[in-house]
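Schema walkthrough. Field components (list of strings):
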Amino acid sequence: MDGEQAVNTMTDVGNRPAARRGVFSRRVSGILEPYYYVSPALVLIVAVMLMPLILGLSYAFRDIRILNPFSGGFVGLAHFQTLMHDSAFLGALVNTAWWTFGSLFFQFTLGLVLALLLNRHFVGRRLVQALVFLPWAVPTFLSGLNWAWMFNPVVGPLPHWMVSLGIMETPFNILSDPDLAMWGPIVANIWFGIPFFAITLLAALQSIPGELYEAASIDGANTRQQFFSITIPFLAPTIAITLMLRTIWIANFADLIVVMTKGGPADSTQIVASYIFTQAFRRLDFGYASAIAAVLLVLLLAYALGVIALRRAMTHADS
Amino acid sequence: MASIEITNARKSYGAVDVLHGINLDIQDGEFIVLVGPSGCGKSTLLRMIAGLEDITSGDISIGGTVINDLQPKDRDIAMVFQSYALYPHMSVAENMSYALTLRKTAKEKVASAIENVAGVLGLNALLERRPKALSGGQRQRVAMGRAIVRQPQAFLFDEPLSNLDARLREQMRTEIRKLHRRLGATSVYVTHDQIEAMTMADRIVAMYNGIVQQVGTPLEIYDRPANIFVASFIGSPAMNFLEGIYQAEGDKAAITLEDGTVIPVLPSPQAENGQHITLGARPEHIDIVQDGSRPAVSSNVELIEPMGLSTLVHVTLAGKPVKIFTLARPDLAIGSQVQIAFNMDKTHIFDRQSEQRLLPLNEPRHTQQT
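Field assembly_structure (string):
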């Protein structure tokens, strides 16, 4: 085997005249050698990531329905043509944007506020920092169930509180109101996502040298000016990368929606990810579900490329 | 420009006292260097002047106004940090103009101020660069420029040269000194480097353990150190110390070392016969006597360090190491005996208990002591 030869050249070099081994083959095995070492990882990546991806993409062009034994044939772009006129899908696209950016805005804003608070010195700060992380540690379906109950006027307090605050006239479950239902999972998602931003932004905040604030305070900057001229520029790279990652995660994150509303009522909380889930595991139409997934993949890739291009443009303008 | 008065300033962190009542008057336009080993409180004192640390008790005033409770920005001071603390996302010009922009200074004025200062510091070609694209020396200059542009009442320097290499440090030392002469601004400069203190200061404030040990011009401090700490901290190579017993008779006095060697010193009215004394002599105040022309004591040559300009001879006297600085190039063999003589006028005696210097008869107490 080539691999053994490569090893042999390494160990037997001293015993053999160098001229007897071809310069070319030595060079080739030298180039190949590192790949042998990474091959276990490569094999795993190909087996569990690349293959399923290609297989999944191929399903998008085939008719695969679990309950139909005659399905499996190649259908070309038929699924995509159906998609273009699928109002449920188009609604899900709009909902996805709504769900993603609604959650993201509040997660980020509140996470930043929390990070700034946790960056101050106070008694019990470490304990609070640990507690803040808790929502992240709760299994999402449990969070979803809990929040669903909290919105339920029979068992949960939230509708009654909202009545007391004058936001609601009579206690009812917003999860069953098509106009308001999306706010249920969004609120749960905000609660769930704040720790991520708080912790990553806190780490970034703690890396800012204190002397910069001292220099700025001597230069005459007040707290607000220090925030905008030191804190924000320092946080910018972290903000950019976390916002991008979270956008993609949230857009794909259907757990809370599936648990709390199952996409209803009347598809009013259906996002693309939950629609894929519904198509694949409720209607068992894997072909169509794969086609939707392919579209979502393309959309998210386009988004990521856009953000990266924007970032590159910004850092180029910087230097 | 303004004077700075520090009256009985104390600083404690909880139960730990860092500064024990500092009194210091800094004249308008003076260049004061706070010097001492790390942990002596010099940086804390500087940060108290800047407003970055609270004053536990006492007063600090700038230009006659007590500034204890003023925010740093309202004290009209500029500070140069050890790490320079340049704003990394701003260009050199933006770094220097930041304070002026915050004060809403007119754009033309800012531009002309920047141009002016950049010219003085040789930063013209670097104005558009980011700090990360600058060398250490250039960053240091930008930090200086940021302070100068504002034309503050006082400059505060917190070990600004300690991140530079030796050659650059030497160069910046003279540059800062020249700048000070040009601007005439009151400056407080913190360093642990006694050479910086000696070369730059109008007056040196030597600090140790949160107490001002001595205030004086560099040569006063060097020639008439108040105590053993100041004597040992200032000067390189450091002063030699030998322990012995004081004996005086009439207008003559001498120290008897542990092995019986007798070294004549100037008599001090503050010393008593039989008192335990630490004798201090700078390496350049001990001479090698090879022709027997002067009374001398015998010592062993341990090591010879030729430094080109001068030679440092290490000997042992009464079992203690003694360094001798000489401009000559003595022809000595290691292990041989050499006769050495102490320059009596320049040799100090310190009380071993209090570590204070005991003044000779004719020297007035004209350096400030605590």
